[in-house]
Amino acid sequence: MISFREVSKRFGSKVVLDGVTFDVPRGEISFIIGASGAGKSVLIKHVTGFVRPDGGEIWLDGVEVSRLDERALASVRKRCALVFQHATLFDSQSCLENVALPLEKHGRSRPRGEILARARDLLTRVHMEAFADRFPSELGEGMKKRVAIARALALEPEYVLFDEPTTGLDPVNARRVDRLIQTLSREGGVTSLVVSHDLTSIFGIADRIVMLYKGRVRLIGSPDDFRQSDDPVVRQFVRGEAEGPMDA
After folding, report:
1. I want to staple 56 with a disulfide (CB 3.0 to 4.6 A). Which of 7, 9, 148, 188 is the partner?
2. Helices 171-186 and 141-152 sit at what angle, rounded to 10 degrees?
3. Residues spanned by the domain of 190
4. CA-based max dimension of the chain
5. Got the DSSP string for the chain?
6. What angle separates helix 141-152 from helix 95-106, to the nearest 10 degrees?
7. Residues with pLDDT less than 70, the chain
8. 39/42 Cα distance (integer angstroms)
9. CATH number of the domain to which 98 belongs
10. Tally of domains within the chain
């Protein structure tokens, strides 16, 4: 389980997180939602040490990761893969070579053929095996994101942190990414923590939703809890309304 305990973070005079506390249960798909600038992406980057808290703690299966040094964080980053909003693939390498990169770095001198075979298996898992020899510049955004997810799975993480995985995708490709996240959870036992504005994704695949508002947790609950909430801030987000308390 990932646990955030009174996590605070500011950049200059701007308070981004102000005592955020919640748990991410193992095996579930949890979404973090909120307006732009609410601190969602900043929060998940704390788990892997890309951002350090000013206050509070982040725990991973009983170990406080928020105070680990870079060497100790290496093992955390093998267990918690971060899929960025943009695919961040290397354009000079094929899809197969991109997926093989983590295996080559951490594969402990595994034979090249074995590494490439594993990379092909991962591309098959995300339905991109036919594009193994293509370069990222030849792919659409939805395909790139699936390759990025395959690369994130290379070291068999227990947790995958997704930062806006469907942003910029057409509805068909967005739903393909949703189904992939579901499959990872239901069949692979992966715990997913997803930052998103995509209401179809949020209400289609989330087990649990955490809403951030002005640096704090506004509501935690199931999709039904959010649909039934009388909180005006929650209702404005759920309904996608242009004006309301979130703009105040």
Report:
1. 7
2. 20
3. 2-247
4. 58
5. -EEEEEEEEEETTEEEEEEEEEEE-TT-EEEEE-STTSSHHHHHHHHTTSS--SEEEEEETTEE-TT--HHHHHHHHHHEEEE-SS----TTS-HHHHHHHHHHHHSSS--HHHHHHHHHHHHHHTT-GGGTTS-GGGS-HHHHHHHHHHHHTTT--SEEEEESTTTT--HHHHHHHHHHHHHHHHTT--EEEEE---HHHHHHH-SEEEEEETTEEEEEE-HHHHHH---HHHHHHHHT-SSSGGG-
6. 20
7. 107-109, 242-248
8. 5
9. 3.40.50.300
10. 1
Instruction: Report the pLDDT value the prediction gives residue 20, as an integer from 0 to 100.
Output: 97
Residue count of the chain: 248
Residue 108 tokens read as 């402990």
Q: Note the pLDDT tens digit of each residue in 82-123.
A: 898 777 899 999 999 999 998 888 766 678 888 999 999 999
Amino acid at 11: F
Token code pair at residue 191: 């715990």
Joined tokens for residue 86:
């943009």
Which residues touch 171 (CB under 8 Å, ≥6 apart)?
200
What is d(CA 227, CA 122) in angstroms, rounded to the nearest whole number? 36
CA gap 119, 154 in Å, rounded: 7
Q: How is residue 4 written in tokens? A: 């955030």
